[in-house]
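Morning F.,

Quick status update on the modeling queue. The single chain you submitted on Monday has been processed. Sequence for confirmation:
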Amino acid sequence: MTDFNAESLASIGPKEFAQLVKATPDSKLAEVMGGDSRTKILDEVFNRMPALFRPEKAGNTSAVIHWAITGGAGGASDTYETVIENGACTVTNQAARDPKLTMTMDPVTFFKVVSGDGNPMMMFMTGKIKAKGDLGLAAQVAKLFDIPRG
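Structure tokens below.
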């Protein structure tokens, strides 16, 4: 199995990514995400979101979602913006529009959510994911994407 780093992520598909997250200890995920590769890794994951978007599940959903990923160097966090409208999904690393929903989580939790290795609802209930705004949308976000299972 590949090491969890920016170079390996660029060369593997969603299913392999899910397997890599599952096989990598949480402490290693946190360590890598506190280092220099953080932005490159987050960009790689977020840039895949539009390809995994399921427009048939979104229907006429129109929403701006901010993802605040904590745990950066010196306590920094990164915010990415997902816009769902007109049956399409776009992602940027700039929070430019007012969000309908903001979800805040550490990078390990984020990777577990996007790799299908964790139950987002349980993570919300236990405080690992903090959601502000439209909680109904928060409950539906996972269904809007074809989340690979490891």
